[in-house]
Amino acid sequence: MSFELLATDSVGARRGRLHTARGTVETPTFMPCASVGAVKALSSHEVREAGIELILCNTYHLYLRPGHELIRDLGGLHAFTGWDGPILTDSGGFQVFSLAPLRKITEDGVLFQSHLDGSRHFLSPEKTIAIQQALGADIIMPLDECAPYPISHGEAKDALDRTLRWAERSRDVHKETDQILFGIVQGGIFSDLRERGVREMVRLGFDGYAMGGLSVGETKAEMEEVLEAALPHLPTDRPRYLMGVGTPTDLLVSIGAGVDMFDCVMPTRHGRTGSLFTATGHLNIKGAAYARDPSPVDPSCTCYTCRHYSRAYLRHLFVTGDILGHRLNTLHNLHFYGMLMRQAREAIAEGRFAVLQAETLQRLSSEQISE
After folding, report:
1. Among residues 179, 235, 293, 329, which is most buried (max CB within 10 A)?
2. Alpha helices, DSSP H, located in the chain
3. What is the pLDDT of residues 159-189, one digit of tens each?
C-alpha cells in the first residue's frame, strides 16, 4: 500500500490517492455498504458506473453467513462477489456491540448471540483478523469497542483502553500479510480521550487511521468537535477514514476537516424507501405531487435513472412495490454520492473547495434526511 497526498485546500481538505493491490482509489472517496457481499439491488457493473472505486463488506455478517471458510475456498471475496476492485471489510465490532444485551465483553473478546438463529459465538481480536484474512479483503479493520451514546467519560476511557489493547494484538497477528490494516480511534465525544487515542494508535503504527464510535446519536456539533480534536494529530501521509457517516452535508463538512474516506448505508437504504438526493436537497418520491411530474429526479444529474425515467414513473414503481423502483432509486443516490466526491476532489485540486463547500451546503439546506 501507498498513499499519496496530492493537494490540500486552505480549509484543511485533502486530495489523495490510495494504492492497493487491486487498484487505485481517488480520495476523498465514499464506500457503499455491501454488508453481505452485495450493494443491495445493484450489480458490480452498476456500482462501478456510479463512480464507486471501493466497497465495504461486513465481517460479522459474512462470518455468520455463508461463512469465511466457504468464501476462502471459493477464491475469496473478489471471486465470490464478482467485484474486482478494492474491498474494505469492517471488523463487525459495531454490529456485535449493537446486539446488547445479547453480548458480553471480556478482555479476551466478545461473546455474542447471532441475530439469525441465536447461536453463540466468540470474536477475539486475533479471530477477527483471521476471518478477514480468509475473506481476502484489501483493507481490514481490527476489533474495537464501539461505545454507545451517551456515555460517561470513565466508560469512554475504558472502551478506548480496551480498543488500544485489542489494536496491539491485532497488529501483532497481522504481520507478514499484504492486507492494509487500519487502526480505529475511539474515545466518545471527549476531546482529551480522542487526542490520547490518536497518539497511542499512531505509536502502535498502522497503514491508516479511522474515527470510530461516531454517528451513534451525538449531535453534529459534537462530531465536528471530535474531528477538530483528533484529525490534526494524525500523520499526513496516512489515509483517514470516518466510519458510518453520513449525509451529504456531513461528508462536505468532514472533508473540509481533513477526512479522506467514508461509508454509510444512507444512499442505498434511502433509495429503497423512496428518499432521493438532489443538488438542491431531499426529494421524497412517494409524494402525490410527483404523480404527474414528467421531469427527472434531478435535472442536473447524468445518471441512468435521470436520463431515462420521470418522477411520475418512479413514484408509480414505488406505489406498486415494483423492485425496479428500488434499483433505479439506488442507482441515482449512489451516482449522487459518487458525483459529490468527484466534485470535491476537483475543487480541492483547484484550490476552491471552500467555495464549493459553502455553495453546496447552502443548496442542501432543505435536506431533512436523518441518519
Report:
1. 329
2. 44-49, 59-64, 68-73, 77-81, 93-97, 125-135, 153-173, 191-204, 220-230, 248-257, 266-272, 304-308, 311-320, 323-349, 353-363
3. 999 999 999 999 999 987 889 999 999 999 9
**Whole-angstrom distance, CA of residue 144 vs CA of residue 126:** 12
Helix axes 248-257, 323-349, angle to 10 degrees: 20
Considering the candidates 138, 250, 263, 298, report the single residue annotated as catalytic: 263
Backbone angles phi, psi at 216, to 5 degrees: -120, 15
Residues 214-223: tens digit of each pLDDT? 999 999 999 9
Is residue 211 helix, strand or coil? strand
Q: Respond yes or no: is residue 178 known to be catalytic.
A: no
Q: Side chain identity at 237, as an amino acid letter? A: D
Cis peptide before 294 (omega within 30 of 0): no
Which CATH number is 30-264 given?
3.20.20.105
Q: How far is CA 276 from CA 46, 236, 353, in A?
A: 17, 35, 24
- Is the whole model's pTM more than 0.85, yes or no? yes
Look up 250 and say whether it is catalytic. no
Where are the domain boundaries for CATH 3.20.20.105 in the chain?
A: 30-264
Please state, in angstroms and rounded to a whole number, the distance separating the CA atoms of residues 212 and 244.
8
CA 260 to chain CA mean position, Å: 11
Nearest-5° angle of CA 58, CA 242, CA 25?
Answer: 75
- Of the residues 90, 144, 207, 250, only one is catalytic, namely 90
